[in-house]
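Putative sirohydrochlorin cobaltochelatase structure dump, as promised
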Amino acid sequence: MKKQAILLIHFGTTHDDTREKTIDAFRKKVELSFADWDVFEAFTSRMIIKRLKARGIVKQNPLELLQELKEQGYTHIYVQTSHILHGIEYENLKEELASYKKEFEEIKMGEPLLSSVEDYKQVVSALGKRQKTVENQVVVYIGHGTEHAANASYSMMRYVFFQEGYSPFFMGTVEGYPEFPEVLKEIQVQYPLEKPKVILKPFMFVAGEHAKNDIAVDWKKAFEEAGFVVSDVVLEGLGEILEIQDIFMKHLQEAIENQRESIAEYKKKLS
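structure tokens r here:
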């Protein structure tokens, strides 16, 4: 007998305020859309799990939860993460899920936020409509960054912003490329005669540690030391935005319906 579950996986956060607005809100959205399904949740960051446990908040990691679901007799597992791109964390999770492939009749994972050109355009549309700019003002979104080749996704975001008519929107990263010096140089090239006012926003699912420290403190200070006025720091995680949630929901639905075909499957059609 088929027994299926949806597994939502996040890096996690210790900040209750942003967790309620993002991780908890997304779970409620999934539970409403899949009312007949069992929905579970796991965090990938062992450090965050440990810190939450010390506060009496218990979160499982993916392998612990998969083992539990196996023991409970689930046969079909559909996973959706809140990862932004195909980076190291996403690839590691794929490997963990693959280790349980023989334990279930089916285990499928949805794509991260940015996995197709259409995804990029939808994200740009959602963010562009949410933050209108005025003359001599720029918006700088700052992601986490990764050593994985998928870090190029941030540069593509900036390109799509520009192509879709949102040239005052820039992209930076905390631990990848472009970092602050590259973003600063790009703004100076686009605005050679005067310094525009700057709005800083996280390009992260949750507005947690990185948003409240690296962005609201370090990046703000760096821009001010460069002579810019930071008019606002908006600590809003991407997971708070309904249109962004909808993209993740679309990817989950595609995984369930097997709509995304692999490159191998695509090549078979051409041969």
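The mean pLDDT is 93.
lmk if u need the other ones
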